[in-house]
Write a structure and sequence with these properties.
Strands 1-2 form a two-stranded antiparallel ribbon. The chain has helices at residues 2-19, 22-30, 34-58, 68-84, 98-109, 125-149, 154-165, 178-202, 207-218, 235-248, 252-261, 266-269, 271-290, 300-311, 325-337, 350-368, 385-411, 416-426, 444-458, 462-465, 470-474; strands at 377-378, 381-382. 65% of the residues lie in helices and 1% in strands. Helix 1 (2-19) runs antiparallel to helix 3 (34-58). The chain contains 21 helices and two strands. It is mostly helical.
Length: 476
């Protein structure tokens, strides 16, 4: 019964997802690409019918509290497989490989932004819109749909989201009802996307490309269209990206409080946004000083742009991050740290980094004063020992997953430096490379492992690994 109830909810989420295909269809019709429009309609229509029938036949089964983990896992697998189909028309004749199509969809949905197929400049604009929309769906849309549809079983939803937010830090709900929370999240990120699109357009980017680039910017996705239409060749456009990457990497709780209180004070008062800005300032100053005496000096706006891209796990990049081994490692650490909880960014999340540093400080204080009581806190609120234990457990899972994945890639023949580069880019969903990724040279099995790592990083690792525990399937 557990699998049937989870399939019912997953099928309903997939139906809502397929409804979003109307937007690339409209784009296709607008530009006169009727061929691609018909095929998108055929795939989405057939898929909607199949999954709605599946939902109708299984909806009578009741979800249990812990079934939310299974719902999320099944939903991501189904959506990633369906999303891979349109990339068939992006591949050159005779080079169709299912793993490339799936990896491209995974890279977009997880907002990793590693290009796997290539030849982007030759893609029709409909397919470019579709890929950019996948980033938006992965970063924002699926969160909204899951929160909305699981309102019938709020305990199921909260079993997932509280693993990230924690009762001690904040509740996932910004309103008493989860459905209203999802509505506010939709308003917040929809507004950010529109204002970002308008800002790109006012700085000279063609409107359709401005809308597509803003999807990657706000969702911290990383698939940039800069190689097709020059976008970041002007400081004004770089600043648009900087502002909206930072807003995308800030938790929706902070945005809601800023809107409700009509003040920007919460962006510097709360722990995570303040850490985000401090990390940005310190690294920008460090890189600026290191490159000050070099022959190829960089504009300050370009330095801030790339540092913001890594600290928010967006992954837009120039050549600055490879200017020295020290800067390269710093940028890798920025991606691992990630953005704020409740945002579209990846990585460990800054609240966990904050708790980790407080734990280290507490250890040193106890060595000096054995009887001292060192209380850990976030936003001035004390954390329980249970939540701190969860943070330690998650960081342990992250480290173990990183090294276990590296051992698998090494066993499959990937060189050590490339394995490190690939894992730093994929498990954090930062996408931006700290070295040559050479994804096109990977075998099908190596690409499959890489795609699993991307999903693990996007689903906070534990939400997927818990399905591997025999005890989970034995629990009621």
């Amino acid at each position: 019964m557990r699998l049937q109830a989870s399939l019912a909810v997953s099928a309903l989420v997939v139906c809502f997802y397929l409804a979003t295909w109307i937007f690339p269809v409209l784009v296709s019709v607008t530009v006169g690409d009727i061929f691609l429009a018909k095929r998108l309609i055929l795939i989405s229509g057939a898929g909607f019918l199949v999954f709605f029938m599946l939902y109708s036949s299984l909806k009578k089964h009741e979800l249990q509290k812990m079934d939310g983990f299974l719902v999320v896992g099944v939903t991501w697998v189904l959506i990633s497989l369906i999303s891979a189909l349109p990339f068939y028309w992006a591949l050159p004749a005779g080079e169709v490989r299912v793993i490339d199509m799936w990896l491209e969809s995974i890279s977009a949905l997880t907002t990793t932004g590693i290009e796997c197929i290539g030849h982007v400049s030759a893609w029709p604009i409909t397919l470019l819109w579709y890929r950019q929309q996948l980033e938006w769906v992965g970063g924002v849309g699926i969160i909204i749909m899951m929160m909305s549809l699981l309102t019938l079983h709020e305990g199921t939803a909260l079993s997932i989201y509280n693993s990230e937010f924690g009762h001690d830090v904040r509740d996932v709900r910004i309103t008493p009802r989860l459905a209203n929370t999802a509505r506010y999240v939709c308003y917040i990120y929809g507004s950010l996307w529109f204002v970002c699109s308008l800002s790109y357009y006012l700085t000279g980017v063609p409107w359709v490309y401005a809308m597509m680039e803003s999807m990657a910017t706000v969702s911290t996705g990383g698939f940039s269209l800069d190689d097709i239409v020059p976008i970041y060749d002007m400081p004004s456009r770089q600043w648009v990206a900087i502002i909206f990457m930072l807003l995308g990497a800030t938790g929706f709780h902070t945005h809601f409080q800023a809107i409700r209180g009509r003040t920007l004070r919460c962006y510097v008062q709360q722990t995570e946004p303040r850490m985000l800005l401090v990390a940005l300032a310190i690294v920008v100053l460090t890189v600026f000083l290191l490159t000050l005496n070099e022959e190829n000096t960089y504009d300050v706006s370009m330095i801030i742009f790339e540092v913001a891209a890594f600290v928010t796990t967006t992954g837009f990049e120039t050549e600055i991050h490879t200017s020295s081994p020290f800067v390269l490692v710093v940028f890798a650490l920025l991606g691992i740290g990630g953005g704020c909880c409740g945002s579209t960014s990846g990585g460990l999340k800054l609240v966990r980094v904050h708790v980790l540093f407080q734990e280290a400080k507490g250890l040193l204080m106890r060595l000096l004063y054995p009887n001292i009581v060192h209380t850990l806190s976030v936003n001035g609120k004390a954390l329980s020992t249970a939540y701190v234990a969860n943070v330690r457990g998650y960081i342990a899972l992250f480290v173990l997953t990183f090294f276990f994945s590296m051992l698998i890639l090494l066993l499959l023949g990937v060189p050590l430096p490339q394995s490190l580069y690939l894992l730093c880019a994929s498990i954090t969903n930062v996408g931006g490379s700290v070295g040559p990724l050479e994804v096109e040279q990977l075998t099908q099995l190596q690409k499959f492992v890489l795609s699993i790592v991307m999903i693990l990083g996007r689903l906070e690792i534990a939400a997927l690994l818990v399905l591997c525990l025999p005890r989970y399937w034995r629990s009621s």
